[in-house]
Each structure stands twice: as C-alpha cells, then as structure tokens.
Amino acid sequence: MQFELAIDDYFFLTPATIGTVELKQLLGDLKPMQKRRLSHYAKLAMGSLLQLEETSFDCNEGQGTPVCELVFASRHGDFHKTSELLDTLASKQEISPTAFSLSVHNAVSGLYSIFKNKKIPITAISAGRDTFLSALIEAYIRIHTKRLDKVILIYVDQPLPDHYQCFADENQQGHAAALVLSANSNRAEGKVRLSFDNTTDAETSAEQNTNHCLMFCEWFTSAESHLVLSNQRANWVVKKL
What we know:
The protein is α+β, with helices and mostly antiparallel strands. The chain has helices spanning 15-18, 23-26, 32-36, 40-50, 79-90, 97-101, 107-115, 131-145, 212-220, and strands at 2-13, 68-73, 122-125, 150-157, 175-182, 192-199, 226-230, 235-240.
C-alpha cells in the first residue's frame, strides 16, 4: 500500500517540550470552568488542538457538507481516569456520572467540539501499537473518499498507571501531536508533502518498543529525509517529498 499526504500545519508536545511549556498557557482560549473539567491527558490534547491555525477548522459550517473532519487517536485513552473509576467500583462506592462521561475514548474530541462550537464529524481510533499509523490511513481514506479539503488529526497518550505498567509493551511517555492533513495534489507554499510506503524489505535500527508518534515527531522536525515505522506485519517507509 502506498499513499501521500500533505501537512499544512502542526503542533507537537513531546517529552522534551512538555517540561518547558505551561499547559495552562496553551488553554488560554478556554473559560476557567472549562479548564477545570480537563485532566492532564485532556489538557495535552486540547492544548495541542488550540495551537493550530483557526483557519484549519474553517469548514464552511452551515453551508452544507463539511469540507474537513477530525480524527482523534489514542492507544489507551484517558486510562488514568478509567483506572480511578475501577478503583471506586472495587471499593463498592458510587462513581461520578461526570467522571464516567469524561472517561470514554472520544470524550476529549467531543469536549473540543462543544467548547469551540465546531460542528464537524469526528472519528475515534484505537489500534494498539499501530494507532498512529491507523489514524494516518484513516485520514487519507476520508480525504479521498469524501473529497475533503483537510482532516485534522490529534494523537495523544500518556504512560499507564503504575499498577498497569506490567502490561506496557512500548516506551510510554506523555505526548501529543496535532496535524492538519490534506491531499498531496495541492503544492501550495508552506505544505510539507509526505509519502507512505508499506513494505517488508525496509530495515530499521529503531527499537521495536519505540512509540510511532514520538518517532514521527522527532523525525519530522529533523533534517532526515525518511523514517521507518515498524509493526509486526511490515515496515512503513515515510519520506519527505
């Protein structure tokens, strides 16, 4: 499988930058009451989305079919909140309806839509270690099958709670990546054009437990021309065109 995408805008929150950025500053557009509803995980995602250019979400709302959509991707979701709910149930206490509603996988993307009044279709993706690649493929499919101008992709994850660390099978660190993706046919200035090629022949020196999104963020901002993302079935070769 081969496909191409263009990146019109992006914002990354990596382990290296999280310690130097105040999350509350990234949430400056939200009301205090809205900020209080957000967990650390939700702040990573919401803060990243809010850094994208406002024109990225100019979807001709109210003029028929939207010309952009949002893909929300996370391997574990806000599992810290889910873990707290499970602990509450185990101790035979009543759980908070609000906490429960905010623990579902697509809760953060729903809150973004409500807070910013963005009436756009949202797809939630969780596909194990292939979540980031699956989200990129989903974005490509939606752009081309629905003739969309763009798709906004947000990927966010954080380490599992301490008592679930025995199940971790990759290097898990809190991070988020927000991308504005469009078809590669538009060669407008400022776009970064990428190709994705699924192959069994490419070799990679990266450790198999490295998170794909973290690898992509580091590579995208470097001078390297290509990146290999590996899974159990094949390797994906990503190239800057």
